[in-house]
Design goal:
The chain has 900 residues and is mostly helical. The strands form 3 sheets. Strands 4-6-7-9-8 form a 5-stranded mixed sheet, with helices on one face. Strands 1-2 form a two-stranded antiparallel ribbon. A two-stranded antiparallel sheet has the order 3-5. A hairpin with a 7-residue loop joins strand 8 (869-872) and strand 9. The longest helix has 76 residues, at 622-697. It is elongated. The termini are far apart.
Length: 900
């Protein structure tokens, strides 16, 4: 049997073995005999999911290319486990308290249970994990090809793309069968966790076995290896301080934010005390995984051809020296690293996609009711299985488009930077109450866009998604927008450059928008629960059963959990309550249990919303209310002040808008006036000049012609004089230098004068009056008051558009104030002009009558000097104006301020 066929047989047997382990673990958990599954050692080994094919194969390649720089990938998680143990404990406590099912669930729950934020985090997680899936495909593909080259000539080795596709299809099928055989109602996958723990032991033993073979089998022991290290380029490699620090921080951020790490560290955690063991055991595991990396890299560089791929030294060293069994064992270690990563990442991502995208959309499409028809369980299962296939396919697509480069570490770092964009929103939500949903949305979005532009899209190569021209000169030739030199930062490593700008802009947007926005009440409540999780209740708010019926809850549960599981749950709860049958009382404890069971199938947010439709709402515990009481007390005074300021600003803004609208209209009217006034001045002057030239230059004009032309000149001179008089009159009135001449007269006589001055009584305008009401003696400037009356009557003659124009003059006296109403039967003043009708330059009905638009402005100034007022009456049948003034002498002295 060839070594390739033997490898395939061993892999199939290994897969069967993993299935057996997972099946046994699930069966033991269901029967209640799985205490060993909740061991802290199993939990610690499950964290080894961090060590993927990158760390198994790529760490050696990383060391061969960059020396001790590979240590940063192990140093970051070690610092987190040792230095940030309290933060990890807080995350685990929040996960249990809030029934968190994914990192998207954690972030969205912190910020007011925002499903929009959960959707964005899910999409970024899928895109950010895509390079990591590609890395696993590439590592397994390269390792299989390494075995194939032993049996087959180089030209008969399967094409990398074909091998990659077959591996992707196999991993997708394996993950669907392994991770979605059923819906785990608690989102804890005992079989998967146990299988990962077994794989952790296998990949560690495989790497140690290869290391022992290299040190004592190929080398002369530790002394010989150290001598080779001193003689190699690895010992003389100069590590950039910025890159060292950047990669350490990046690996620490990825350890917290990778969806698969969150799945095993928070969601699968059975007891937060397990973190105490993991705090020393997991760094020890990482140390053992890295123990022989340098020796393997040095021996590979010394013994293998120069064109050998350093990422495959773990395989090619045993193969080239006839150790086929050790090579297969090493392959199983790498295969375990890849498959465990794909399984857990696909489970985590499919849960996020199903709970936060598919299920909300499906519920909305089906009417959004909790008791809808159809099997929700089957929909959720199908969504997760399709999501797994889609995620793996995206990884394969990235693998193909990026060209399948040989540097595994480069692909892994791209994924690390992508998921690190969750860190500001995640950490900020755990330590800062003031963090808001808007800030989290802004930070995550801006950080993701920067990462995609500066690192993810360029990783496909030039002219694939970003043109080579943009890579070299920037978009539109803007050099400081080049993907690898954003804002002119040149000369630094591409990964460090992307980390610098994506996280800097992310943090700036997160903090800035959070400071400018105000959290909603739900955000404030969640913020208090997250930040002070150890100070109050370990469980979320309880339910109030309200009008809930057990039958309704059972129908809903059957749709999601399946009929058998739902009946078992209800019957067990009824038995605990001491009730016959299988319908328990819908107590708060039972409803909370039901929600926890349902959350594993459709997500916490969706389960909470569906139960809320039946129950009617949830109670907030006293502890939760007390947790935000202090903050509320501090905010109340500030809120009241802010509300007062907001109202004041709103009023000011409204006034400014009104003034702006008014000024805009006045500006238009002013421009029209300047055009009109220039026309009004030019027309009489042109006529005067023309006819005077005729009189001067034409000989033999008879007396009649001369009189005609002289009359025209005289009329135009009067017209020009009236215009100038109006302008001068308005100027004098506005300046306050006008001299008023008081006198006493009967109001009816003043109205008679005004009517006679405007043409008297004629058929063109019918004027209606009541003489008895006009028998009032007024003491004021009679000429100025008559001037106001004349203007209003003249305007009626010019602008009233009724078939039979009619003007009604009504006089009333209230105490010492006389009110005179001028109302016609026309269409009146247009509504848009009523607020500015008394301003200068405003004219109504320009097509029907001329004028400079100064009449009503003069009237307003006159009435102000007479201690009265003139207003437009908008609710009249036609046009209407009200003139009011004091009966006794009420004159404003010349130069007296209007406000006095």
């Amino acid at each position: 049997m060839s070594i390739l066929n033997l490898l395939i047989a061993v892999c199939l047997g290994y897969v069967v073995f993993l299935f057996s382990v997972a099946f046994a673990a699930d069966r033991a958990a269901r029967r209640g005999r799985g205490a060993w599954l909740r061991s802290p050692i199993v939990y610690t080994l499950s964290l080894s999911i961090y060590c993927t094919a990158w760390t198994f194969y790529g760490a050696v390649g990383f060391a061969a290319r960059s020396g001790l720089e590979f240590v940063t990938i192990y140093l970051g998680p070690t610092l987190v486990m040792i230095g940030w143990w309290g933060l990890l404990r807080k995350m685990v406590r929040i996960g249990r308290s809030q029934r968190i099912t994914s990192i998207a669930d954690m972030i969205s729950s912190r910020y007011g249970k925002s499903n929009l934020l959960a959707v964005i985090v899910t999409l970024i997680a899928v895109i950010g994990t895509t390079p990591y899936i590609a890395l696993q495909l590439q590592s397994v593909t390269l390792s299989i090809n390494a075995f194939a080259q032993v049996d087959l000539p180089g030209d008969q080795v399967s094409e990398t793309g074909t091998t990659g596709f077959l591996i992707a299809a196999g991993l997708a099928l394996f993950t669907v069968l392994f991770g979605t055989r059923n819906l785990d109602v608690n989102e804890r996958h005992h079989g998967v966790v146990m299988a990962i723990a077994v794989e952790a032991v296998i990949k560690l033993c495989a790497l140690l076995a290869v290391g022992v073979f290299v040190v004592w089998g190929l080398g002369g022991g530790p002394a010989d290896i150290l001598a080779r290290v001193d003689a190699s380029d690895i010992a003389r490699w100069e590590v950039s301080n910025s890159r060292w620090i950047g990669l350490t921080m990046l690996s620490a951020a990825a350890f917290l934010c990778l969806p698969r790490m969150f799945q095993v560290m928070v969601v699968e955690n059975q007891d937060e005390s397990h973190l105490r063991t993991a705090a020393w055991a997991f760094p020890t595991y990482l140390m053992l995984m890295s123990l022989f990396v340098i020796p393997i890299a040095v021996m590979g560089l010394d013994l293998l051809p120069e064109d050998s791929n350093p990422d495959l030294f773990v395989l090619t060293l045993p193969l080239m020296h006839g150790q086929d069994g050790l090579a297969i064992f090493s392959f199983l270690g790498g295969f375990s690293s890849a498959t465990s990563m794909v399984i857990v990442a696909a489970i985590a991502l499919s849960t996020m996609v199903s709970n936060h995208i598919v299920m909300p959309v499906w519920l909305r499409m089906t009417g959004g009711t909790a008791m809808m028809s159809g099997d929700v369980r089957s929909v959720a299962l199908l969504a997760r299985r399709l999501s797994i296939a889609a995620v793996v396919f995206l990884g394969y697509l990235y693998f193909r488009l990026s060209g399948g480069g040989t540097a595994l570490a480069a692909i892994g770092l791209i994924a690390f930077v992508g998921v690190a964009q969750f860190l500001p929103a995640l950490l900020g939500g755990l330590i800062w109450r003031g963090a808001t949903r808007s800030g989290a949305l802004a930070g995550v979005s801006i950080g993701f866009v920067t990462w995609a532009y500066c690192l993810f899209l360029p990783s496909f190569g030039p002219d694939v998604l970003i043109s080579a021209e943009v890579m070299q000169a920037g978009p539109w030739g803007i050099g400081w927008l080049r993907p690898y030199a954003l804002f002119g930062t040149e000369g630094i490593d591409n990964v460090v450059h992307a980390v610098l700008w994506s996280l800097s802009l992310n943090v700036a947007a997160f903090v800035g928008v959070s400071l400018l926005s105000f959290p909603t009440p739900v955000e404030r409540l969640q913020g208090a629960q997250f930040v002070n999780i150890f100070d109050h209740s370990g469980t979320s708010g309880g339910w109030n059963a309200g009008m809930a019926q057990s039958e309704d809850l059972l129908i809903m549960a059957q749709r999601i959990m399946g009929p058998d599981e739902a009946r078992k749950l209800f019957a067990r709860s009824a038995q605990l309550q001491g009730l016959p049958g299988f319908l328990p009382e819908p107590s708060p404890e039972f409803i909370e249990l039901l929600e926890r069971e349902l959350s594993g199938s459709v997500g916490a947010a969706t389960a909470h919303a569906m139960i809320s439709q039946i129950i009617g709402g949830a109670n907030v515990s006293v502890e939760d209310l007390l947790a935000v009481a202090d903050e509320t007390a501090q905010i109340m005074e500030y809120s009241s002040q802010l509300e007062a300021k907001s109202n004041e600003l709103a009023d000011t803004a409204r006034q400014l808008r009104e003034v702006n609208d008014k000024l805009t209209k006045l500006s238009v009217q002013k421009d029209a006036f300047l055009s009109q006034i220039s026309h009004e001045l030019r027309t009489p002057m042109t006529s005067i000049r023309s006819f005077s030239e005729i009189l001067r230059d034409t000989q033999g004009l008879d007396a009649g012609a001369q009189a005609k032309y002289a009359g025209i000149i005289h009329d135009e001179t009067l017209r020009l004089t009236r215009l100038l008089d109006d302008l001068l009159d308005l100027s004098v009135l506005e300046s306050g230098t006008v001299v008023l001449n008081p006198g006493r007269a009967r109001l009816g006589d003043l109205l008679d004068r005004a009517i006679d001055a405007t043409g008297g009584l004629d058929a063109r305008l019918r004027i209606l009056r009541e003489a008895t009401r006009e028998d009032i003696v007024v003491d004021t400037d009679l000429d100025r008051l008559v001037q106001v009356f004349i203007n209003l009557i003249a305007n009626c003659r010019k602008y009233c558009d009724a078939a039979q124009p009619e003007l009604r003059i009504d006089v009333t006296q209230r105490d010492d104030i006389v009110q005179v109403i001028f109302a016609d039967n026309g269409t009146g003043v247009p509504e848009e002009l009523q607020s500015i009708i008394f301003e200068k330059f405003v004219r109504v009905g320009e097509t029907k009558a001329g004028g400079a638009g100064l009449g009503l402005a003069i009237c307003r100034e006159i009435m102000t000097r007479l201690r009265g007022e003139i207003v437009c009456l908008p609710k009249q049948q036609g046009g209407g104006f009200l003139v009011s003034f004091p009966v006794a002498r009420g004159l404003q002295a010349a130069g007296e301020n209007d406000a006095d």
